[in-house]
């Protein structure tokens, strides 16, 4: 991963076409919502990992423990060696390997497993995290409602909660003063981590997005490539 990344692998399709594409993408949950897949054989999971993803009853909307049977061990949150020319505090999303890195001092980073956007909905480039929100309201763009009429009931916003597509936290990605419509947000669908399923956004497990949001400062650079 290099420190100089063009702001969009598609060059944002230029001008008004770009804005329409971004607005049409937005964030949503798996569409249509997938049923829970068959339970795979449980891998050996360290107790430290189980504790890291245990239930969070103190949250405004209590978060259940993650069903770790659905998460590949390589996507568990962990601190790794990560030499980079990017400044500490930078968020880097590796869309090839489905990782999100939060760069730390001393050549390390906290690495999280991520779910990413389906082909045709991805956003990539260099921007900044304008702000974060706890248990945000989600409002689907009009173009998304046109594609999915069942979302009409949320035209004025879906209240926060475990069923809200933005989950426990959302980090809002801006390009300059413009909201790109893309977010880093939470999900309870553990089986989507490591896969391309959402309409454009970067999704982390609720536990991981809470951990990240507690540490990211507004204005931090985010690179998606």
From TrEMBL:
<feature type="signal peptide">
    <location>
        <begin position="1"/>
        <end position="26"/>
    </location>
</feature>
<dbReference type="Pfam" id="PF03734">
    <property type="entry name" value="YkuD"/>
</dbReference>
<dbReference type="GO" id="GO:0071555">
    <property type="term" value="P:cell wall organization"/>
</dbReference>
<feature type="domain" description="L,D-TPase catalytic">
    <location>
        <begin position="89"/>
        <end position="225"/>
    </location>
</feature>
<keyword id="KW-0573">Peptidoglycan synthesis</keyword>
<comment type="pathway">
    <text>Cell wall biogenesis; peptidoglycan biosynthesis.</text>
</comment>
<dbReference type="GO" id="GO:0018104">
    <property type="term" value="P:peptidoglycan-protein cross-linking"/>
</dbReference>
<dbReference type="InterPro" id="IPR005490">
    <property type="entry name" value="LD_TPept_cat_dom"/>
</dbReference>
<feature type="active site" description="Nucleophile">
    <location>
        <position position="201"/>
    </location>
</feature>
<keyword id="KW-0808">Transferase</keyword>
<dbReference type="InterPro" id="IPR006311">
    <property type="entry name" value="TAT_signal"/>
</dbReference>
<dbReference type="InterPro" id="IPR050979">
    <property type="entry name" value="LD-transpeptidase"/>
</dbReference>
<dbReference type="GO" id="GO:0071972">
    <property type="term" value="F:peptidoglycan L,D-transpeptidase activity"/>
</dbReference>
<dbReference type="GO" id="GO:0005576">
    <property type="term" value="C:extracellular region"/>
</dbReference>
<keyword id="KW-0378">Hydrolase</keyword>
<dbReference type="GO" id="GO:0016757">
    <property type="term" value="F:glycosyltransferase activity"/>
</dbReference>
<comment type="similarity">
    <text>Belongs to the YkuD family.</text>
</comment>
<keyword id="KW-0328">Glycosyltransferase</keyword>
<keyword id="KW-0961">Cell wall biogenesis/degradation</keyword>
<keyword id="KW-0133">Cell shape</keyword>
<dbReference type="InterPro" id="IPR038063">
    <property type="entry name" value="Transpep_catalytic_dom"/>
</dbReference>
<keyword id="KW-0732">Signal</keyword>
<feature type="active site" description="Proton donor/acceptor">
    <location>
        <position position="185"/>
    </location>
</feature>
<dbReference type="GO" id="GO:0008360">
    <property type="term" value="P:regulation of cell shape"/>
</dbReference>
<protein>
    <submittedName>
        <fullName>L,D-transpeptidase</fullName>
    </submittedName>
</protein>
């Amino acid at each position: 991963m290099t420190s100089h990344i063009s702001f969009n692998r598609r060059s944002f399709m230029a001008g008004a076409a770009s804005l329409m594409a971004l607005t049409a993408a937005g964030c949503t949950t798996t569409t249509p919502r997938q049923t829970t897949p068959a339970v795979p054989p449980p891998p050996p999971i360290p107790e430290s990992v189980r504790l890291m993803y245990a239930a969070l009853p103190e949250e405004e909307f209590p978060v259940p423990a993650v069903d770790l049977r659905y998460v590949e061990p390589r996507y568990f949150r962990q601190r790794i060696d990560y030499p980079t020319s990017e400044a500490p505090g930078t968020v880097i999303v590796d869309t090839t390997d489905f990782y999100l890195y939060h760069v730390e001092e001393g050549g390390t980073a906290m690495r999280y497993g991520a779910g990413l956007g389906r082909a045709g909905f991805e956003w990539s480039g260099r921007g900044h995290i304008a702000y974060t929100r706890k248990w945000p309201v989600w409002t689907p763009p009009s173009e998304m409602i046109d594609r999915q009429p069942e979302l009409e009931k949320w035209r004025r916003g879906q209240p926060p909660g475990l069923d809200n597509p933005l989950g426990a936290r959302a980090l809002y990605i801006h390009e300059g003063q413009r909201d790109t419509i893309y977010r880093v947000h939470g999900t309870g669908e553990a089986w989507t981590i490591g896969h391309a399923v959402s309409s454009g956004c970067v999704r982390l497990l609720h536990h991981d997005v809470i951990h990240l949001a507690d540490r990211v400062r507004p204005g931090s650079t985010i690179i998606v490539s």
